[in-house]
């Protein structure tokens, strides 16, 4: 199960950035990103319920797969739901300040933030080799994404840098916090845990729609500006979200970081065929460093 969900996350993540860019028209989003984000949460909630229903049909109802819960258990879900809302919205708006390659470079800040928060919140100790592997991973990912226009990242406006840093911290904290919630009760069915997380995600996204896009939704309609690519992007984000929770359940956030890093390399390879993208020497060097980092992490995990 661990290997399957990790591979699924890698494949799904590799297509995320491509679909987001494809969903734009004339360099901007014609659809409401808050409504799109709401549909992602709603679809994840629906997928969790369908899987849970199948579990009930095969295994019956048990204490671990019942939707009924206690206030203490459900009260922890609003925090990561709110964090993911802000992080996901920032993911759209940061493209106003950087291009896709620049976004991928700034996104690597998430690697370090996850490692630090993993140690602070979950009290999980990483060996010196694993920390070295983490730094190599960040350097390798950044190197692989370098191109002649990469210097423009240094000219990113202050607000763009702040959004990137905040997004990295939110992503790391939300991921580590969610892992702590999911693993607090290991026997609890993951689909029940996902259901409550996504319910609060839907609630917060409704609030975001009312605050930010209420007039646009009322005047133009909920699905104004949507295209087939938009719906494909929504499905991809929903499936990726499910895969992330599964990785946290059966592995951990460190595995998630490495999975998304490999996805970055896979995205570049796919872009060769889709966008006539040319792989550079920096890409091959960076990919080699990432591979070495993955090997060192596995060695460090055995020696921990």
TrEMBL record:
Its membrane topology: Multi-pass membrane protein
Keyword annotations: Membrane, Signal, Transmembrane, Transmembrane helix
Places the protein is found: Membrane
Superkingdom per UniProt: Eukaryota
Cited NCBIfam families: nst
Signal peptide: 1-17
Gene Ontology MF: a single term: pyrimidine nucleotide-sugar transmembrane transporter activity
InterPro entries: Nuc_sug_transpt
TM region positions: 33-56, 129-146, 158-182, 194-211, 223-245, 257-275, 281-299
GO-annotated cellular components: Golgi membrane
Signal is among the record's keywords: yes
Full protein name: CMP-sialic acid transporter 2
A Pfam family that the UniProt record links to this protein: Nuc_sug_transp
